[in-house]
Amino acid sequence: MSRLPALIYGALAFLFSFGYVHAMTKDLTQGKPLELILGFSVPLLFGYLFQQFYNIVDTVIVGQFLGKEALAAVGSTGSVNFLIIGFCIGVCSGFSIPVSNKFGAKDYDTMRQLVASSAELSAVFSILFAVLTVAFCRPLLVLMRTPENIIGYAASYIRIIFAGIPVVFLYNILAGVLRAVGDSRTPLLFLVISSLLNIALDLLFIIVFKLGVEGAAYATVLAQFISGLSCLFYMIKRFKIIHLKKSDWKIRTNLFVKLVGTGFPMGIQYSITAIGSVILQTSVNTLGSDAVAAVTAGAKTHIFFCCPFDALGTTMATWAGQNTGAGKLLRIKKGLFQSSIIGLVYSVAAFFVLYLFGRKLGLLFLSAEETEILGMVHFFLISNALFYFPLTLVNVIRFCIQGMGYSRLAVLAGLFELIGRAFIAICFVPRLGFRAACFASPTAWILADIFLIIAFFACYRNLEEKELKFHAGFDEVRED
After folding, report:
1. Residue 27 domain flag
2. What's the pLDDT tens digit per position in 116-160?
3. Which residue among 67, 87, 297, 356 is least enclosed by CB atoms within 10 Å?
4. In a domain, 423, yes or no
5. Which residues of 236-265 are buried (b: 16+ CB within 10 A; e: fewer)?
6. For residue 466, what pLDDT band results from cuts at 50, 70 and 90?
């Protein structure tokens, strides 16, 4: 294992020397929106696919080699994992928005100061979050009514994942900065490396070393750590525009406030959404470990198919951030429309694939003898895929609003998602069982869309008014 970093860096050097990886920023304020959106989002898509791929591999190996109880245990932590890790990822994504604004405005000095301030805040927050979540993870699983036969496995797994929160910050803050300056390809490379390494470590820790569900957690954290270090190495070597000087590391309270103002609302948005998932998971837990296993297998497949929506959303955050900074508001609206059309086409295709092959995809996680659970997985996938276009809008509009600088409004969209999931979980799952749980997320997406569509046009009008006032003031100064 001591030679692993050298081997990774050697592989990176090989790729660099042959030109497969190019250190380049991308200005999204000029050019055709459709071409730019596709060019930026496709590398993101592959990154998300690889990220979910190794998450799925974790689940497949756990389900096939450790059994359905271990599968249910890992799955039962999904919502609380999303609650905590999602908050951390949201904070990192929020930190990158001011960076993209300054890059779009060509204010590179302030941009570098924001990068340094983001790193300083991330170091403090990541350690704090790790300590608190490790201490309280088991009480939270008890509160969620995790079945007794799987709670031990679940606590062992999620405790290790939470201990790795500093690693989550390391990769996501660096990837966010790279995307803010228009480079969506580089994070993909390191996710590919991470995913392949994760698979190898899964097999090693679970099958060879017999570490059980803890082995899957160790594999995930270690793979993420190497991905983060590789990203840091690459930035230092290739991105002069982000090279930080000693003066950039000066404590700047005003930048801290600005970053927290964009990062925390985005993190809270993820968490508010996740609270609804936690409430839903609590209701599903009362249905027994078979229902938990079905939701686990269905959710893993569903999340994989949702990667295009995540890629479009992240693209729109950078798109809106750069074009807001450049004062090109019409391009924001054009980009939002193009992204929605892309999402609509994909949503239709994804539904037919899951309708035809959803049951067979369940065999990745469960044996063919589990016919009842496989039927439940198929129903879960179809009921969610019917509403993939509303999910498209949730992602592209919400991230667009965040990129425009209205992160707090995006938090309210998460609140509507929470209400939707909680309503189904509390009012219908106890009476109607598993099938009701399958429609909790679609209900959440529709409620969020109603709010987001109204909020977008309100934000857009507000930006237009600011631009008009700015130009009016500029004209007055020029006349004087």
Report:
1. no
2. 999 999 999 999 999 999 999 999 999 988 888 889 999 999 999
3. 356
4. yes
5. eebbeebeeeeebeeebeebeebbbebbbb
6. confident
Least confident of 51-55, 80-84, 190-194, 380-384: 51-55
**What is the domain range of residue 127?**
49-479
Domain count, the chain: 1
The pLDDT, as a whole number, for residue 179 is 83
Determine the pLDDT at residue 222.
Answer: 93
Q: Rounded to an integer, what distance in angstroms lies between the CA atom of residue 28 and that of residue 331? A: 9
User: Average pLDDT of 167-193?
Assistant: 85
Q: Which two tokens stand for residue 140?
A: 């939270």
15 inside domain: no
Q: Determine, yes or no, domain membership for 437.
A: yes
**Residue where the block lists tokens 């050298």:** 6
d(CA 286, CA 140): 15
pLDDT, tens digit (0-9, with 9 covering 90-100), for 403-437: 898 877 877 888 899 999 999 999 999 999 999 99
